[in-house]
Amino acid sequence: MESWEVREWYADFLDTCNRHDLDEVRGFVDAGVRRAHLPGGADAFIDDLADLFHGFPDWQWRRIQVVIEDDRIAVHLRGTGTHTGIFRGIAATRRHVNVAEYVFLRMQNGRIAEVAGTTDRAEIVAQLTG
């Protein structure tokens, strides 16, 4: 894909994530996706999003910056949501969280094959308990 096509692909992916459409998100992810320091596979990827969306039904990401080079995408995002469901064993606090995220993706055959970054759920927990 050309870089402009990858940019549009990523915009579609982020929109799908922001709609919390996990079935459609699965279509963007390779079945064997590798994730740095996390269990691999599309099921684990989807389960982590489902956990986040359960705790934060209004969760949204805002794209700050996207850099594309060949089959790689680097993204700076801002994630926000209100804690109204159980997340990581923490009952709803109604607190609003706001976290910076930096995500690095490698695409293969039009799907996410590798993910690394600073999507740190510990920062979310800190904002809920601090």
Instruction: Give the overall silhouette.
Output: globular
Label the structural class: alpha+beta
Task: Write down how many β-strands occur, each being a DSSP E stretch of 2 or more residues.
Answer: 5
Note the main sheet. 5 strands, mixed
Total of DSSP H or I helical runs spanning 4+ residues: 4
Q: What radius of gyration results from the CA coordinates?
A: 14 Å
In the sheet with the most strands, the strands line up as 1-5-4-3-2
Mean pLDDT reading: 95
pLDDT < 50 stretches: none
Fraction of residues in β-strands: 35-45%
Order of helices and strands: HHEHEEEEH
Helix content estimate? 25-40%
Query: Distance N terminus to C terminus?
Result: 44 Å
Could you characterize the architecture of this molecule?
- By secondary structure, the protein is α+β, with helices and mostly antiparallel strands.
- The protein has helices at residues 3-18, 22-26, 42-55, 121-129, and strands spanning 29-35, 60-69, 72-82, 96-108, 111-117.
- Strands 1-5-4-3-2 form a 5-stranded mixed sheet.
- The chain starts with a helix and ends with a helix.
- The mean pLDDT is 95.
- This is Ester cyclase.
- It holds the Pfam family SnoaL.
Topology of helices and strands:
Layout (H helix, E strand, L loop, with lengths): L2 H16 L3 H5 L2 E7 L6 H14 L4 E10 L2 E11 L13 E13 L2 E7 L3 H9 L1
Parallel strand pairs: 1-5
Antiparallel strand pairs: 2-3, 3-4, 4-5
